[in-house]
Design goal:
disordered C terminus, two-stranded antiparallel sheet, alpha/beta
Length: about 240
């Protein structure tokens, strides 16, 4: 199996230069993915023939609007079955682009925020889905988004949550951290976790390290989410069953 994957990056309020290469190495080391990484998404998205080469799109883009042509081709590709993974800050992107919002279902929009970067427990809420079947609850240092906005009445399914601790400026509620949706023929995996901040902005800030990405359970679930999005199944030690 070789899942041809395109990672879209180049702008993000977060430290976008470090996570995409890390994700590239993680995916390729699994032996299941062949990954291209672009810091100029429009160059690929404006070329339908080039875009058609990919089985999976992986976006962590949080920046300027893409061109109308790029947005149209992106939406059409996903609707026609090019599957999609959305990582952390990318759910902040493109306010007002309805088709992108329909892909995710839950997004960072007005009223959304997060507490402090801290260690918390991720609880698996669906033990039967291929992404999370056999995966145990785990602890992680990360930034926990809260009050993601449900948009356009899009059906979504939560695979895992984490409690947003009031003492860490959270909501006192369980918040989703892994979500799946369907857009046209495509499966969409939304990994809300994945915070890395630019270095040197805050003194002694753990959120500027790669410790979230270095968490083995984060890596496992991100890999499984990518594989499920691209194939509808997860083949591994804990799961060899299709959807």
């Amino acid at each position: 199996m070789c899942i041809k994957t395109l990672i879209l990056t180049g702008e993000n309020r977060h430290a976008w230069r470090r996570p995409p290469p890390f994700a590239t190495d993680l995916l390729e080391a699994s032996g299941k993915f062949s990954v291209d990484l672009t810091e100029h998404p429009e160059e690929v998205l404006e070329d339908p023939e080039k875009l058609a080469e990919y089985d999976l799109l992986f976006t962590e883009w949080l920046g300027a609007e893409w061109s109308d042509t790029a947005k149209k081709n992106f939406a059409q590709a996903v609707a026609n079955g090019t599957d999609l993974v959305v990582l952390h800050g990318a759910d902040n992107a493109f306010p007002g682009w309805v088709e992108y919002e329909k892909m995710l279902g839950l997004l960072w929009r007005e009223g959304t925020s997060h507490g402090d970067y801290h260690e918390f427990e991720v609880k698996i809420t669906d033990h039967d889905h291929p992404i999370t079947r056999g995966v145990e609850d785990f602890r992680i240092w990360d930034e926990l988004y809260h009050n993601l906005l449900h948009m356009h009445e899009v059906p979504y399914h939560v695979l895992a949550t984490a409690y947003s601790v009031p003492e860490m400026h959270g909501t006192g509620k369980d918040e989703p951290v892994m979500v799946v949706t369907q857009y046209g023929e495509a499966r969409v995996f939304h990994m809300v976790l994945g915070h890395v901040w630019p270095q040197g902005v805050y003194e002694n800030y753990k959120g500027e390290t790669m410790m979230t990405f270095e968490n083995p359970s984060f890596q496992e679930t991100l890999l499984r989410g990518c594989e499920w999005a691209a194939t509808g199944e997860v083949c591994g030690a804990n799961d060899t069953s299709p959807v």
